[in-house]
Design a protein that fits this description.
about 270 residues, AB_hydrolase_fold, single chain, seven-stranded mixed beta sheet, hydrolase activity, globular, hydrolase, 7 strands, Alpha/beta hydrolase, Rossmann fold
């Protein structure tokens, strides 16, 4: 059964702001929602038609359509991205994906390169695990411990995870916002997706990406090792890597001016 365009847009809570000729697509990462991009939207709304949408299960606004089996790999999310952009008739859009959404966008560009003019990956990683000589940042035991802790007490885990990911104390507004969105997610969905993300490995797919890519990486990020960003840069032909003067995995929320300035340099 072929899904109608209106169903695709409804399923992913698609928002379109403005009607400029060039399209800027903003995709939130794990545990965040479209509002995470509000500073970026405000900065660029007069220059682009801005498209925002939710990936199934990634944030609290998209859980009704999450399927544990279907979304056991990042390819399912990539197919959803293609479906949304095709429905909106995007042509060579500028796509900014945060965290896992950066790699999802890259996989989507392999499936439908005509939809993308440029990929901008903010805090993305092709593999979060340390494998052989590759340094993704997490040992397998670290991932097991993370999932075990979240399974035992999800609410307590969100508080610790939020501080770790944002790299700020519990009372920081960005930490509070991130923890709030994590707690709005169904724990079983959040943990299923987190496991899929942390166990994902698309290093062998990077050579298939032909769309120009920019990698933006905070200088200190507990979720993504700098070596992982450098690995992406080395294997995405013609890509650009910029290390942002920011800390934490959510710099578009915690240091928006820094991210906006970087986007201004790379979107044109």
């Amino acid at each position: 059964m072929i899904e109608s365009g209106s169903s695709v847009l409804e399923r992913h809570n698609v928002s379109v702001i403005g009607s400029r000729a060039e399209t800027l697509v903003l995709i939130p990462g794990f545990g965040t929602e479209q509002s995470a991009w509000r500073h970026v939207v405000e900065a660029f709304r007069d220059r682009y038609r801005i498209v925002l949408f939710d990936l199934a299960g990634v944030g609290p606004g998209s859980q009704a359509h999450f399927d544990h089996v279907r979304y056991g790999s990042l390819d399912a999310y990539a197919r959803d991205v293609v479906a949304v952009l095709e429905t909106l008739r995007v042509d060579r859009g500028l796509c900014v994906g945060h965290s896992v959404a950066g790699m999802v966008a890259a996989l989507a560009s392999v499936k439908a390169p005509h939809l993308f003019g440029k990929l901008i990956m903010l805090g993305a990683s092709a593999c979060y695990r340390n494998v052989g000589d590759y340094r993704g940042g997490f040992e397998s035991a670290d991932i097991d411990g993370l999932i075990d802790s979240a399974t035992r007490d999800y609410m307590q885990w969100t508080a610790r995870f939020g501080q770790m990911v944002v790299s700020r104390p519990a009372e920081d507004p960005t930490v509070r916002e991130f923890v709030s969105t994590l707690r709005a997610m169904r724990p079983d969905m959040a943990l299923s997706l987190l496991l899929t993300i942390l166990r994902s490995d698309v290093r062998n797919r990077l050579g298939e990406v032909t769309v120009p890519a920019v990698i933006l990486q905070a200088r200190q990020d507990a979720a993504v090792a700098r070596e992982a960003a450098e690995y992406l840069h080395d294997r995405l032909a013609g890509s650009v890597l910029e290390i942002l003067d920011a800390s934490g995995h959510l710099p578009h929320m915690s240091a928006p001016d820094t991210v906006i300035a970087a986007l201004g340099r790379h979107l044109s």
